[in-house]
Specification:
This protein is mainly alpha-helical. The chain contains eight helices and no strands.
Length: about 200
């Protein structure tokens, strides 16, 4: 399977290839050019965000969760629950939406927990988790085209990673059937370490 740097290149190149195609399709279907450009920028931005920061490889200890800095701990529960390269981490549509939902739920949980802790010392804060949810629902309601562009880009960014992984795996299978064996072992791709020998610990 390709490493993190290769996946990043694939994400950027596929995003650049999508941009003119998405722009043309929208204009062809009657979208005004300013709206088409805005939707295209949102889609490509979401594509890059999904492929680089919300990569399918967040299901293991890798270069991807390193990009979150100290916030890598937010992905630890996801990492331990989701099996690597399973349907829940590497499917074309379900897995990117699952990661988006997971991130939203983690943020909501942190806001609720923070409000509770502050309440224990007599500091009352607004229900920020409700504010966040209302704002998100408001954005989806007020900007449906932009919301669809974001979700589509988020899905394509993850799909570029998943398709690349399966092309490499499938290509190795075809070569083996032809009697050609590759020496490179991709099991250690993306700086992966077994969880019992993880580079980090909770301590």
């Amino acid at each position: 399977m390709p490493g993190a740097r290769t996946h990043d290149i694939i994400t950027v190149v596929s995003g650049a290839a999508l941009a003119p195609l998405v722009q043309w399709l929208q204009i062809y279907n009657g979208f005004p050019e300013p709206a088409a450009t805005r939707n295209t920028l949102i889609l490509v931005g979401a594509h890059l965000l999904s492929g680089i920061m919300f990569s399918p490889d967040l299901d293991l200890d890798s270069a991807i969760d390193d990009r979150w800095g100290p916030l890598f701990v937010l992905w630890r529960p996801y990492m331990y629950v989701i099996p690597h390269r399973s349907f829940f981490s590497h499917s074309l549509i379900v897995s990117p939406l699952l990661r988006l939902l997971y991130f939203y739920l983690v943020v909501v949980a942190l806001l609720i927990g923070g409000a509770w802790l502050l309440g224990q010392v007599g500091i009352v804060v607004p229900y920020y988790h409700r504010v966040l949810t209302d704002r998100l629902l408001g954005l989806i309601h007020d900007y449906p085209q932009e919301s669809r562009a974001f979700l589509l880009g988020f899905i394509t960014g993850s799909a570029a990673h998943t398709i690349a992984d399966y092309l490499v795996t499938g290509g190795k299978t075809v070569l083996r059937r032809l009697g050609i064996r590759l020496r490179r072992d991709y099991r250690d791709h993306d700086a992966w370490r077994p969880r019992h020998r993880s580079r980090r610990s909770w301590r």
